[in-house]
């Protein structure tokens, strides 16, 4: 199937929460194939979240921007109200996060109880977010078991433009107050030299725990992000790019020490994120090439009052060389080949010598084949070679059939893997903080998955509807195995990382959007999931069986409004008596915007209108929701 034929014939909904005036049902995307292709052509189940959608939702970070997206659920991290997201019931560590296709330093499972991967990019820097649901290791390697989140940032433009956002937040009972200040600008410095710069500050105060207001239920956050992108075109079709990204963040919370005299102390984490990238992109006509180097670094330090010992400082660094070639062979083949070399390094006092490292190398190939006018087949595979555990192959195959101009069917199969972290696989690691000790295991294997998927899409001039059914089998899941308990005050339990579990997850995703007239649009996302331990058939913890996010939008002249209801169904969580079932809950958000002038908009809203507090529903939840919060923002552009 030729790209232009399918692009004209297929339209998919880009997200149930889209603002009506900016909803584009068939945008161009890059994540599913590593090249520009229409959403309708993409050989994957995908969702696109635009900058306008993010503003309407009142989001201040990546996780908030993605809430309500098909296939995404929340997981608690047990500390400071933190939560992470997962795709299609896979673990949070099975989601690969990219920035303009560049891998960030993954903190999941390397740094305990972390949700640090959501603060690399400021909201003002984001042009759109592409979410691929399903395995993508055939193109991106480790971690892409559940899917890929690719943050597409604003690029340097040939004409000057920019904007400023001033926002204030006021929480219920004078808790959780905060602000967001952001500015961006982009334009030419010379005839072939363009620049884009953005800065942002987000501050949110901590939220006290109702049972004891001396301690925090949700930690406070103070984050400053900045980016600089420079592009130079020495010749037509040739672009040299430099991207610099910085994000510094402070997390603070008051808590009570669990042992001895149990004093109240201030627990503060300092986070530093840095990513530098240089790239050469070239368009040779039927051949496009890219060569890129990226260095990502993450550092975390901790300090505590009351003379309590802090947690160990940790530092992660990834140096990645990658390159790819995209070539069109006649009208029926679009071939992509590439390779990657990654040096991963971890500094942690629990490692003998204080650090350890591993080298990853990979090659991949993909062929997008037009079988006929109405049929397209995408085949791909990637071979990864890890310095410690060896090789892993990840194949992928997708078939797309346009049955009628309105109806499209898709079917896909893919395999994926996640490499063990350096803590898990290093025999030199001994993590002994608090009452637990964790040991590395040089014999550990990568986590692997096999996924099957069927999809159908129907569209007409006023609406779009999609359905996807999937089955994901995940083997060799890495957890820790209890070895022994040593006496003491408190007693110390010794664990070792190992491959000890298997999972089978089956699910159904439904999305729809309908224009009702008079500027009104109705949207909905519905997810059903059956996550089980493949050995015991027991339900897996932390996966709601049913979630839904209906939304109602209204746009008329200078006004636009959005009401979104997020329903999280019942789920199993770990309690004092083992596995217990937690109740369902709902979060309702609303926003209203008014365009005062062409480049000046006033926007406000209320988050968590019902002031839902999860601990009032059950003590099983390992995270908290921000209480009722009102926000007001002024957005100016030029």
What is the gist of this entry?
Helix content is 5%, strand content 61%.
Q: What can you see in these coordinates?
A:
Helix content is 5%, strand content 61%. By secondary structure, it is mostly beta strands.
Low-confidence regions: 2-22
User: How many DSSP E strands?
Assistant: 38
* Number of continuous helical runs: 6
Which structural class fits the helix and strand makeup? mainly beta
Helix content class:
under 10%
The span between the termini is 42 Å
The amount of beta strand, in percent, is: over 45%
Shape: globular
The profile of the biggest β sheet is:
25 strands, mixed
Q: Quick check: average pLDDT?
A: 90
Cα-atom Rg, whole angstroms?
24 Å
């Amino acid at each position: 199937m030729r790209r232009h034929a399918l692009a004209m014939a297929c339209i998919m909904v880009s997200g149930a929460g889209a603002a009506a005036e900016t909803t584009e049902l068939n945008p161009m995307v890059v994540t599913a194939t590593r090249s520009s292709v229409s959403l309708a052509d993409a050989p994957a189940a995908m969702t696109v979240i635009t900058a306008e959608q993010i503003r309407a939702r009142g989001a201040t970070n990546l996780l908030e921007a993605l809430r309500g997206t098909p296939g995404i659920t929340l997981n608690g991290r047990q500390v400071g109200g933190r939560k992470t997201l997962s795709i299609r019931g896979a673990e949070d560590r099975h989601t690969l996060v990219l920035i303009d296709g560049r891998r960030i330093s993954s903190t999941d499972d390397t740094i305990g109880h972390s949700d640090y991967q959501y603060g690399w990019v400021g909201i003002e820097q984001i042009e759109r977010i592409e979410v691929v649901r399903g395995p993508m290791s055939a193109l991106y390697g480790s971690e892409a078991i559940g899917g890929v989140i690719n943050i597409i940032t604003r690029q340097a433009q040939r004409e000057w433009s920019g904007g400023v956002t001033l926002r204030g937040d006021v929480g219920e009972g004078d808790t959780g107050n905060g602000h967001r200040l952001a500015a961006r600008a982009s334009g030419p410095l010379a005839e072939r030299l363009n620049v884009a710069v953005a800065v942002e500050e987000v501050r949110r105060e901590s939220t006290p725990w109702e049972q004891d207001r001396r301690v925090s239920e949700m930690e406070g956050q103070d984050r400053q992000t900045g980016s600089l992108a420079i592009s130079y075109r020495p010749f037509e079709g040739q672009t040299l790019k430099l991207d610099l990204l910085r994000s510094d963040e402070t997390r603070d919370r008051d808590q009570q020490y669990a042992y001895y005299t149990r004093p109240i102390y201030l627990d503060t984490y300092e986070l530093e994120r840095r990513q530098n990238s240089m790239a050469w992109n070239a368009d040779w006509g039927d051949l496009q090439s890219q060569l890129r180097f990226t260095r990502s670094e993450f550092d975390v330090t901790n300090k505590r009052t009351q003379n309590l010992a802090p947690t160990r400082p940790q530092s992660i660094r990834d140096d990645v060389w990658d390159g790819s070639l995209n070539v069109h062979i006649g009208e029926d083949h679009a071939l992509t080949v590439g390779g990657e070399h990654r040096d991963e390094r971890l500094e942690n006092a629990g490692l003998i010598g204080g650090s350890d490292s591993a080298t990853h190398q990979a090659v991949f190939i993909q062929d997008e084949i037009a079988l006929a006018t109405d049929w397209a087949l995408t085949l791909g595979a990637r071979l990864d070679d890890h310095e410690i555990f060896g090789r892993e192959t990840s194949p992928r195959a997708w078939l797309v059939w346009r049955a009628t101009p309105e109806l499209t069917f898709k079917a896909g199969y893919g395999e994926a893997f996640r490499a063990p972290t350096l803590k898990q696989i290093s025999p030199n690691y001994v993590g002994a903080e608090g009452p637990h000790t964790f040991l590395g295991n040089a014999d550990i294997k990568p986590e692997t998955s096999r996924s099957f998927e069927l999809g159908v899409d129907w569209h007409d001039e006023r609406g779009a509807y999609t359905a996807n059914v999937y089955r994901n089998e995940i083997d060799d899941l890495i957890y820790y195995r209890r070895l022994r308990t040593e006496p003491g005050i408190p007693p110390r339990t010794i664990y070792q990382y190992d491959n000890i579990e298997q999972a089978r997850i089956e699910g159904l995703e439904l999305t729809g959007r309908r224009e009702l007239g008079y500027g009104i649009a109705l949207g909905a996302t519905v997810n059903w999931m059956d996550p089980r331990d493949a050995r015991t058939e027991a339900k897996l913890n932390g996966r709601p069986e049913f979630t839904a996010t209906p939304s109602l939008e209204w746009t008329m002249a200078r006004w636009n409004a959005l009401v979104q209801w997020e329903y999280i169904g019942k789920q199993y969580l770990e309690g004092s008596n083992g596995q217990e079932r937690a109740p369902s809950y709902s979060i309702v958000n609303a926003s209203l915007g008014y365009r005062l002038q062409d480049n000046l908009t006033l926007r406000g809203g209320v988050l968590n209108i019902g002031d839902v507090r999860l601990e009032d529903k059950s003590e099983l939840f390992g995270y908290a929701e921000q209480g009722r919060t009102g926000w007001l923002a002024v957005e100016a552009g030029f």
